[in-house]
Write a structure and sequence with these properties.
The protein is α+β, with helices and mostly antiparallel strands and 118 residues long. The chain folds into two domains: 52 residues, no CATH class; 41 residues, no CATH class. The strands form five sheets. The protein has a three-stranded antiparallel sheet with strand order 1-2-3, with no helix packed on it. The longest helix has 19 residues. The mean pLDDT is 79.
């Protein structure tokens, strides 16, 4: 198998006259050497597993230490760049705060759930 013009070209079986390449998403962003392709069927759909061998380049060390602090409502990077917390993280922190307050009020007396009474 190989990738030709952004399409997956599988080896043609014997006895087949016409054979077509297979389109797939993300073909232009693939890099490296394509290895053995696995085709399998799941939920009446066919899927292809495309393993690639990619050379990893090591990044040079700068010698600087890096720290990240996210407990103060914004990210503080060593480089001096400050970004605010994304909205989805704010929402998650709000949910954590809500459930922690609920757990703080929860009591068990003699194995039974109990609530405060006046």
């Amino acid at each position: 198998a190989k990738i030709v013009n952004g399409k997956l070209r599988l080896d043609k079986p014997l006895g087949i006259k016409t054979w077509y390449d297979i389109r797939f998403k993300g073909a232009k962003s693939l890099e490296g050497d394509l290895k053995v392709v696995s085709i399998y069927r799941e939920n009446d759909k066919y899927w292809a597993s495309l393993p690639f061998e990619v050379e990893i380049t090591k990044k040079g060390k700068t010698g600087n230490k890096t720290a990240v602090d996210i407990n103060v409502g914004h990210f503080n990077y060593t480089k001096g760049k400050v970004d605010t917390l994304p909205d989805h993280l704010k929402k998650l922190y709000k949910r954590i705060r809500h459930y922690q307050r609920q757990l703080a009020r929860k009591r068990v007396v003699n194995g039974n759930k109990a609530t405060k009474t006046n």
